[in-house]
Amino acid sequence: MRTFAYSRADSVDHAAHRTMPDAAFVAGGTTLLDLIKLDVLKPENVVDINALPLKRVERLDDGRLRIGALVTNTDLAHHPEVKSHYPVLSEALLAGASTQLRNMATTAGNVMQRTRCPYYRDPAARCNRREPGSGCDAMDGINRMHAVLGGSDACIAVHPSDMCVGIAAIGATLTLQGPDGEREVDFADFHRLPGDTPHIEHDLANGELITAITLDAPLENARSHYLKLRDRASYEFALASCAAQVVLDGDTIREARLALGGVATKPWRCSDAEAALVGQSADKASFERAADIALKDAQAREHNGYKIPLARQAIVRALRNAARGETPASETQESQA
Amino acid sequence: MNDMTQPDFDKPRVVGQRTPRIDGEFKLTGRAGYTGELHVDGMLYGYPVPATIANGVLESLDLDAARAMPGVVDIFHHGHFEALHRSPNSMAHGDMVNEVRLPFEDERIYYHGQYVALVVAETFEQARAAAQRVVARYREERGAVVGLLQTDAEGTLQESAGSSRGDPEAAFGGAEVKVDSTYHIAAESHLQMEMHATLAEWRDAGKRLVVHESTQGVFFQRNAMARVFGLAQENLEVISHYIGSGFGNKLFMWPHSVATAVAARMTGRPVKVVLPRQQDMTGGGNRPASRQRIRLGADRSGKLTSVIHDSTTETSLVHQYVDTCGSATPSFYACDNVSTSQRVLEVNHGTPCPMRAPGEVSGIFALETAMDELAVELGMDPVELRLKNNAEQDPASGLPWSSKHLDECLTSAARRFGWEQRNPAIGSMRDGDEIIGYGMASCTWSAGRQPCEARVELRADGSLFAACGTQDIGTGTYTIVAQAVAELTGAELSRIEVKLGETSLPAGPLSGGSMATATVLPAVAAAARDALDALKEVAVGSGGAFEGSDADSLSAQAGGLTDGKRRVSFEEILGTSKLSSVNGQGSAAPGSERSEYAFRSFGAHFVEVRIDPEISRVRVARVVSSIDIGRAINPPTARNQVEGGIVMGVGMGLLEKLDYDPRDARLINANVADYIVPTHADAPEIDVELLDYPDFKHNEFGGRGVGEIGLTGVAPAISNALYHATGKRHRDLPITIEALLASS
């Protein structure tokens, strides 16, 4: 392992004012330590933020839910507020990683999760995200896991988080604390598309720290579902996933929220598809139309073309289950594996 | 060898009984020392530097930055390494290796992950950090052979790996019903829990080498290392007390062991190398990809008239490994016209090696899928087709089977599974969103046996000691050796100490080929009898506990000897005669029975798959198996081998695939997140029945071995069940979501 300077931050201000070069905050460490050992990330300073008082989940007066950056994935998934008002987030969290990882991983850390692109993780490969301008070996390589939405000529790496897909379908605001004070960023704007600068993954300045994620107030009377499709039943990144929320009036869809995972370079909110669902009857034809709209710009490389029909299936089924307000036993047994 | 049908083993007291692992406590409490966690004073840590290309030449190594890193002691590479001898690589002489090329032998790069240097430092972290600072410059060459499945190249015919009887081509040509299909199986990784690990220490001023290795064969490694280092075998000791599984990739020595021993000699200190998972997967063995064509001919009644099985598998550019897919085929079905052929193609991968049921598991996928295709062509139930072609004697050798109950396996498993409820119409069985598919396949593995020696000691403190230079790779060998000693002596299991995994012990076999149980137990029994005979001599001798009695009148009972009137414990007999112990030596080997009978285990798997076509999800819901392995010496561990094989078969069928980059043959998914195996959540409901027909023609204990058979037949049963569910025939493994989408 490369040596680095390790320090513990004892206050948010203290942490945020440390504008050190090549610094990284560490919380659960499930991404950072892994990538340091692979020689992919090479921070010279690692600031441990685990002692910071960012572990609370609180309902705000306006109905929103403020989640401290250091709340673990496990705690968040099982939090009564989340389970009762944001079940789609609870499902998404529990579909991710493994129990052991969820026990360590934190909310803000999951927002900052790095891609699982094998070429990104291999210092011997070319990767514009890891080494700007070096090229992209995934483009014509083994790109079965890669994105069909939001990619560029420079990068088609998938944002691997399940949690973020759930959050995207709910809507949220990130609170960032920096050397110049606090600011808020819409969750939808936080992750950047790769474009020509895939190494710039998010809207976080040097020294800035995510201190909280505040979920929008829950959709009244919404039904929801998170569906994750993958090769095996547990402990695998999504090939395609979908978080869906619908509000029904009889059989008519009054409101819809739709986000995709496993197929896009960032947590992928499908606003056009949502709009197309409103006023439609909650049936297969409507869901398929929405899926077609959500995927109309999808672009496949050699090995990831299957993700387009698979994502379509994920959308249709997630909407169906959400609208029914129930998930068949054949699916629920895997949703928490 | 004693009388093989002696009454002891018809109604054994301990053998065949559920017996907790005697090493379980050590493993649960962390006291079982695995090679990777051993520590000796003054030890250094090695970390190999893997080639990042798969085809080309290493032009230069810039070591300055690495050498300047803290704790670095030395860096070995081509030009800074000892001159050694390649092992002759002979199975017969027990010095076979998994890769004959010696580390750093030349500057050519043959595969991704090939070692270009070994960094040795004071700590593991220092060695790894420095290894990451080694700058290797390559001249990469185009034309890497990415893999068998990415080329049309035919490979080289291996005459000795083929067989033929009758006139299969003519019989196929004239067959009333035919199947002619081609199957592809992707390369797989063993992914054994414990990575390859070596700890090498030179003693006695460099005259003697002691090696701890996570190996399935301490004697093979000793013999190979003796040849490589030009040492007398008695100056080399290989130790492997606990092994975190191997699945075949630890049968024979790999280059990391040689590099570690050289590093220890050149630094003058013990050196330990534990391969990181990535390197374990690139250079520590794999099951090679295969391409197989099967042609079946049958008459209208379903009687096979021709079986032609042509296979090609991969080998590396530095070692010839032949994964003979057709080796079970000549013995599988009663058919007069059968041929098999085998080719190998050199590819730019790390060297493949045996992996659980090597060759046959691939071959049986092809053959048993083809049989299902034939059943469809005939409009016949696949179980009935197999019963109809059941071979009453071994059609390959013409010999009678020592013991075969495949028909009972098929009917018993079918009954427990509920096969009679199968509606053969495609896609006819539904449950909510899911289509249910039922499929089945037979399975088989040969029952081999090797020569073996063992020692048993009866001690004055009341303990018993048994030793054999074989290994327990996690399957429960320690326990069954203790069971054998307990059976022969009547002693309590808790008094029996077992030592395995050292070349200082009597020569024992590889833990491989499902042969260890049948090989080791007869030798242990012989040693126990020898020890009892020695004790009887003591007992009847002057001042002995049975002074003046006839030794032949004494027999072992409950950890003592009895003359029928009174029983005296072993310790009392030894104490009376003021002896600390008596020793028994035993040896056993296969004999004339090998030319009188054919030895092979058979069984059947029945599989329920559930496919949710609207989300392209397939899961194996249920597996019901009946396996005839003779007598299970320890039923829970034996059943566990089959259950593990079934879960591994789910991986082979649906998940596992080593991904080599199509441009340069680099292995892309060399980690346990991207190379996917079944998780607990993927494990189906499993019901395994072990038929209990002791095979006393094989050995006096009646057991035939169980490590591999459970894996064979699982993948074809899955693919056959998928066919039943969807009507799409999957002939390529793994059966991916892409393949399901393409067929919907």
Quaternary structure annotation: heterodimer
In CATH, what is the class of the domain at 359-448 and 595-743 in chain B?
Alpha Beta
Strand-residue proportion of chain B:
15-25%
CA-based shape of chain B = globular
Tell me roughly what share of residues is in helical segments of chain B.
10-25%
**Counting H and I runs of at least 4 residues, what is the number of helices of chain A?**
13
By secondary-structure content and strand pairing, the structural class of chain B works out as: alpha+beta
Which stretches of chain B of 5+ consecutive residues score pLDDT under 50? 1-7
Please state the second-level CATH architecture of the domain at 359-448 and 595-743 in chain B: 2-Layer Sandwich
Q: Largest beta sheet of chain B, briefly?
A: 7 strands, mixed
Give the CATH topology of the domain at 359-448 and 595-743 in chain B.
Answer: Aldehyde Oxidoreductase, domain 4
Query: In CATH, what is the homologous superfamily of the domain at 359-448 and 595-743 in chain B?
Result: Aldehyde oxidase/xanthine dehydrogenase, molybdopterin binding domain
Roughly what is the average pLDDT of chain B, rounded to an integer? 97
The fourth-level CATH homologous superfamily of the domain at 222-324 in chain A is: CO dehydrogenase flavoprotein, C-terminal domain
CATH architecture of the domain at 222-324 in chain A: 2-Layer Sandwich
Strand content of chain A: 15-25%
CATH topology of the domain at 222-324 in chain A, by name, is Enolase-like, domain 1
Task: Name the poorly predicted regions of chain A.
Answer: none
Written overview of the protein:
The complex is a heterodimer of chains A (337) and B (744). Chain A is of the alpha+beta class. Among the domains of chain A are: 44 residues, Uridine Diphospho-n-acetylenolpyruvylglucosamine Reductase, domain 2 (2-Layer Sandwich); 103 residues, CO dehydrogenase flavoprotein, C-terminal domain (Enolase-like, domain 1, 2-Layer Sandwich). Chain A has 13 helices and 12 strands. In chain A, the strands form 3 sheets. Chain A has a 5-stranded antiparallel β-sheet. In chain A, helix 2 links the parallel strand 2 and strand 3. The longest helix of chain A is centred in the last third of the chain and has 18 residues. The radius of gyration of chain A is 19 Å and the shape is globular. The relative contact order of chain A is 0.13. With 744 residues, chain B is α+β, with helices and mostly antiparallel strands. Among the domains of chain B are: 167 residues, Aldehyde Oxidoreductase, domain 4 (2-Layer Sandwich), CATH 3.30.365.10; 239 residues, 2-Layer Sandwich (Aldehyde Oxidoreductase, domain 4). In chain B, the strands form 6 sheets. In chain B, strands 3-5-1-13-10-11-12 form a 7-stranded mixed β-sheet. In chain B, helix 12 runs parallel beside helix 13 and helix 15 packs across helix 16. The termini of chain B are far apart. Classes of the chains: A alpha+beta (337), B alpha+beta (744). The interface between A and B is large, with 41 and 39 residues.
